[in-house]
């Protein structure tokens, strides 16, 4: 048996296809407008959504980025002056 024809390449990193397969592509997880990405999974009963750029978005407006970075909740201030239509 010829073992030279049975070579296997080994890598230390696993390549995953990008989650965002549509055009135009969503903003990356590193961009300032990352929350504008499309929903990949939505679980309001658990309080979180997964965006197609890999960002976990929580209902308290906190975020967990794909690299593990935590973005603290950032609810808009001044919500006491919200007006409703009559």
Total number of beta strands: 5
What do the pLDDT scores average to? 78
Low-confidence stretches: 10-17
The percentage of residues in β strands lies in 15-25%
What form results from the Cα inertia axes?
A: globular
Distance between the termini: 83 Å
Structural class: mainly beta
- Count of individual helical segments: 0
CA radius of gyration is 20 Å
Adjacency order of strands in the biggest sheet: 1-2-3-4-5
Secondary-structure element string: EEEEE
Largest pleated sheet: 5 strands, antiparallel
Helix content: under 10%
Biased composition (Low complexity): 1-12
Biased composition (Basic and acidic residues): 31-42
InterPro entries: DUF5999
Region (Disordered): 1-42
How is the topology of this model organized?
Layout: E1 39-43, E2 48-51, E3 56-58, E4 63-64, E5 70-71
Antiparallel strand pairs: 1-2, 2-3, 3-4, 4-5
